[in-house]
Design a protein that fits this description.
mainly beta; Beta-galactosidase, Chain A, domain 5; 22 strands; 2 domains; single chain; nine-stranded antiparallel beta sheet; five-stranded antiparallel beta sheet; 45% strand
Length: 331
């Protein structure tokens, strides 16, 4: 049996085989405790800093994602659009880059990010979407660990207007291993209002504002919702999930990703804006303003479901149903 090697050069082929056997035994009800020990001690996930601004995650020798906790700038782009606290690149199961950052058509788009075009604190208006007057700033790591076969990254950020912190933000990523050509990345948010009243609102006539996934350049784009493939862009539409796949310019392969919304999400199912140029935008609370008092906490959960090749509505619905069952069972 030939060994696979981690980025640090350590061979893991035999351990990988033991882990797979243990998973199979657990699946038929045997040696559950043994499986937990193998997974915890020999997980294929590994965190490593790329530099003082970005933390990477790998599964064996394949990149999974990069969390940018420091300030990211691009030459020739206004300093106002320097950004942090977002995921880019997010990778497909074969290591292809799924996301874009500083795209020429929307310089403020930034991989997998979460922001609102209308943030009001008292009587003052800010734009977290285009980074006008308010910013998200990394403060500390809460968790950065491998737990069984999963990797968990949790961070605490703050929303700042000048030197004043108006929102405390906690984000947790729970990354699952590749299974059957797919990967699940669960994302949980907790926002605590520090300065209120604080209002959030999506873009007028479009609804974007919230979790957003900006895709890398590609062609042959398909967007799927529960009703099936859509031919036109879709604004202000309430949906439990949506997915996009395309043929990537950089690699010539087809893959994609969907965003699943947990059933306990506020105002479920929320509004969306879907664009064939390559973006899935949650629109919560949508075009109607939602106001929160100081001390109030907002929670939202999602799954980013990454897949090889193209998928249809039936496959996406099955994956979404599985996500809902896992949530119901407390996973």
């Amino acid at each position: 049996m030939s060994d696979i090697k981690l980025p640090n050069g350590r061979p893991i082929g035999c351990l990988r085989w033991l882990f797979d056997v243990a998973k199979w035994l657990a699946g038929v009800g045997w040696f559950g405790a043994f499986t937990g020990v193998i997974a915890a001690e020999n997980s294929l996930f590994r965190f490593a800093s790329l530099d003082d601004r970005s933390l990477g995650l790998w599964e064996a020798d394949r990149p999974v994602l990069v969390y940018n906790h420091g300030i990211i700038r691009k030459p020739g782009v206004p300093e106002r659009l320097a950004r942090s606290t977002y995921v880019h690149p997010l990778y497909g199961v074969d290591g292809e880059v799924l996301t874009d950052d500083f795209p020429a058509d929307h310089l403020h788009h930034r991989g997998l990010f979460w922001a609102w075009p209308h943030v009001r604190v008292g009587q003052l208006h800010y734009d977290l979407w285009q980074l006008r007057g308010i910013r998200q700033e990394f403060e500390r790591w809460l968790r950065r660990e491998v737990s069984g076969p999963e990797a968990i990254l949790a961070v605490e950020n703050g929303w700042y207007t000048g030197s004043e912190k108006v929102m405390a933000e906690r984000v947790e990523f729970r990354v699952h291993p590749v299974e059957g050509g797919t990967r699940a990345v669960d994302v949980a948010f907790e926002w605590q209002v520090l300065q209120g009243p604080l209002s959030l609102q999506g873009a007028e006539g479009k609804s974007y504002g919230g979790l957003t996934l900006r895709f890398a350049p590609g062609t042959n784009t398909t967007i799927i919702i529960p009703a099936g493939q859509i031919a036109q862009d879709l604004p202000m539409t309430n949906l439990p999930w949506a997915g996009l796949s395309r043929l990537w310019d950089a690699t010539g392969q087809t893959s994609g990703a969907a965003i699943f919304v947990a059933p306990d999400h506020p105002d479920y199912p929320p509004q969306w804006l879907l664009r064939h140029y390559g973006v899935l935008c949650l629109g919560w609370p949508g075009v109607r303003e939602a106001t929160f008092e100081a001390g109030q906490t907002i929670r939202a959960r999602y799954r980013i479901w990454i897949h090889r090749g193209s998928v249809d509505a039936r496959r996406l619905q099955e994956a979404y149903d599985r996500y809902c069952r896992e949530l119901k069972n407390g996973r």
